[in-house]
Design a protein that fits this description.
alpha+beta; Alpha-Beta Plaits; 4-stranded antiparallel sheet
Length: 103
Amino acid sequence: MHKLVVLYPKPADPDHFRDYYVTNHLPLVRKIPGLLAWRYSFDVAATNGEAPYFAVFEADYADAAAMAAASASQQGQRAAADVANYATGGAVIIDYPVQDGTS
């Protein structure tokens, strides 16, 4: 599995971010091909001090090639271009292969 994580610093207008994200951005995300699962939260907390991020988004893909194809798709490009409409604080995007662990 391959994971994409988007970390959002605090935006200029948190209420606009939340509303736009749920009403406009997530419907675009749902249309991205190859997306196995996704999740998000506006309740980002730090174990010590103030959290450096306002919101987080996670997406799961079968592998790096599936994520690259999704990002290059028309739907992926549309979702990426939409970020500027709500994320006035910018976004930090990381991706990585997921290694399963055992107890």
